[in-house]
């Protein structure tokens, strides 16, 4: 059974069909990319998956559970965590606080609101801090826990965002343009980290990305959207050869073009 099963999803905004009957499946333990030219519907799709937009019709299931009508916090509780195109972190807070906020939905005592007055809240906080420290080490932020996020280089901030999503202990991680705005070295580091997330943690990754080199290297499977429709779905090699895809990208070969 696929981890994520997307069927016939349509999203209409007053007069405009942003997604038109899109379907595909994400297998457990894989990296799956969604690509497409500007305006193809990729962000809309991510917003449907994370509960920010409601699909006009169609269904999205995670391990059989229907996500389609759920608000974002319920989708997150079922195990879908996401990062954003533009960094969405508290810049003045240290890395550790940003990561602890990522754990909030997992807390029973609600250590943030209880202000650590109760012993069981303090114990729970310590347990979460251990796990946050472990995750920070995993993404290479072990020595940055006390640094305010705003003082970190851009590429490192993107890692903090990914770490915060991991702190939610997701089964599926949605990455919205994880290497946008990064330099070459930062891109390679991020690619390595995404592979590690899949291989060491066994978490499935669904990413939207414009950097074709990255997509072709990383993804096990690629779904291509154009004008809200799915025009191709397959391995990176299959998709690169697909004439619909080549045409959608204005006749250029996808592996030659940073779209
Ligand atoms: N909230 C909204 N209200 C109205 N139209 C919207 C809304 N969000 C997206 N759209 C429209 O839906 C279409 C798909 O947009 P979307 O942002 O999903 O594409 P995209 O593939 O993510 O593009 P890009 O690569 O430029 O980020 C576009 O025509 C866009 O203008």
UniProtKB/TrEMBL annotation:
Pfam families: ABC_tran, BCA_ABC_TP_C. The keyword Transport applies. InterPro entries: AAA+_ATPase (IPR003593), ABC_AA/LPS_Transport (IPR051120), ABC_transporter-like_ATP-bd (IPR003439), BCA_ABC_TP_C (IPR032823), P-loop_NTPase (IPR027417). Residues 4-252 form the ABC transporter domain. SUPFAM superfamilies: P-loop containing nucleoside triphosphate hydrolases (SSF52540). SMART domains: AAA. Keywords: ATP-binding, Nucleotide-binding, Transport. GO terms for molecular function: ATP binding. This is ABC transporter ATP-binding protein.
